[in-house]
Input
Amino acid sequence: MNKVQNNRAWFLILPMLLLVAFSAIVPLMTVVNYSVQDVFDANTRFFTGTEWFEAILNDRSLQAALLRQFAFSFTILAIEVPLGIGIALLMPKRGWQASAVLILITLPLLIPWNVVGSIWQLFTRGDIGLMGVGIRELGYAYNITRNPTDAWATIILMDVWHWTPLIALLCYSGLRSIPDAYYQAARIDRASRWAVFRYIQLPKLTNVLVIGVLLRFMHSFMIYAEPFVLTGGGPGSSTTFLSQSLTTMAIAQQDLGPSAAFSLIYFLIILLVCWVFYTAIMNSQKDNTAQGGA
Amino acid sequence: MEWMVWTLPTAIFFSVIAVILLGMTAWELVSPTVERRGFLPIATTRGDRLFIGLLSAAYIHLATVGFTDLSIWLALGISVLWLLVLMRWG
Amino acid sequence: MTSTVPTTPESVRRQAAETAAKRRRQARPATTRWRRRTLLGVYLVFVLLPIYWLLNLSFQTNSEILGSFSFWPQQFTLGNYIGIFTDSNWYMGYVNSLAYVLMNMLISISVALPAAYAFSRFQFIGDKHLFFWLLTNLMAPPAVFLLPYFQLYYSVGLFDTHIAVALAHCLFNIPLAVWILEGFMSSVPKEVDETAYIDGYSFPAFFVKIFLPMIRSGIGVTLFFLFMFSWVELLLSRTLTATNAQPIASIMTRTSTASGIDWGTLAAAGVLTIVPGIVVVYFVRNHIAKGFALGRT
Output
């Protein structure tokens, strides 16, 4: 769409801008202020310069948490994206079944995050959980509070359960926007099922998939409540992710300075990844418009 | 404002950012930017290049502070230089 | 319908498409269809099984939960639910959660509508960068803002109120609303605006009387997302409240006491947190697929 050049549009933006500024810019400035000081209270504080940043960047346990975080994010993306596409292809296109499947699949997305943790805790406990008892009956000593591998597998399974619906619904809406004429043309050409997927469905999906991958990456990068409830970050620190390290530092230990420095580094990582994705989305849209499509 | 625990360096930092943003707006009003391709792999406007410059400046500072013993002023110098290069040829 | 002879090119094409679809349905081997249904069925079982288990445990007494393992409640009891509905500490948690979620939806949608309109219709200085900045707020981990929020709301005297949580959730909900609404608004042709102005509508009149009704499905989907993300959030709502505005999510932590965890109540409370979501998703079921692509398909 050709947009009109009009700087008075700023007035329409203004209310939103003030609100978001209040809840984003002011706190961010405060975080920056915290990060260069050792704050006891508003009157007792010392300027420390870059000390906290140095400490955080060289903190072994935080480096480990960052690596774990990346490992987790890429693992769940590698599982959820193909699975989500598959589910979307299987979902019925019309009729009451389509609505029913849609509602059922959406369910996990609407459960509060800590309840998701509770559900999986109840589901996987060795004494009362269906899955926990089931696996033990099969002869494997499944225990998420002792065995890091079990804990990891369970958290990944939980995340797949929780968020694959988002990818599936995104892809489903992408698929529904493909005109029937495309499929007819493919049939006339006697295209194989794979060719239909590769040359008709996948190109249409890339747009929504980029959004999906972006949202999933960001949300997995700030995952907190689910593993906190399910494993508490344990056993040891094997499932402690960045958000949990940060929350422990900020709330439990009240280390304002270091946690502020940590926040900023965390935020810069997010900012970089977010920008790369955003630029990719914008460029892909630009290419599409250039080719005459949308 | 007391709870925001301002310090002189951070106040200067945010003032500089604010001045840069205002300056960019004024520059934009005087002569609107043209999207172009420099040595960066994507076509960028002035604002894009400023953002890329500031973001990489942040990473340069973090790397200097965290993993070397060099002075932070050196990082600042490199960042400013990089920002100028980016604005001109990026 | 197939017996009538088609007369317009449009109906010829439609009829051809219908017969082709029928032929395709018949030609596709029955095994393929069954394989698709089975695979989808397996996935649905995977989705529903943990929820079923929660439901199952919520109808059992604690002694039954811990004493015997059964696939359905042997001694069906509503005791856990009655316990929640008769204890004001418990049910106020739901009231608090709903209160701040509704406030947040109201605030977010009312500032996001004009902003989204501006982004979808006009070019202005810094529009792209502003939009990106909004998105970064959507991506920012709430944990980063935890400390300053606590200080901020404490210093302005809003700590432990519903409005504090509602405002805090604006951090990610307003950008989300702008993003979704912008997609829906951009799919409305600009000629609509121009015609309305020629007909003598002022901007506010046009916006409320003509434009908003045109994108009402988009607004519905947006409200659904606002509800969803505010309802499921734990970290901020827990940190910004103490007793008066405590959300259900943090009251649930009370089920674990020194004498062990009250599994039955935990399960019942969990089931009750899912119910509002089901109600909301039922209302927007027909638009949700488009909404999930954020209006961009």
Summary: Chain C has 15 helices and three strands. The beta strands of chain C are 122-123, 256-257, 260-261. Residues 9-50 of chain C form one domain. The mean pLDDT of chain C is 83.
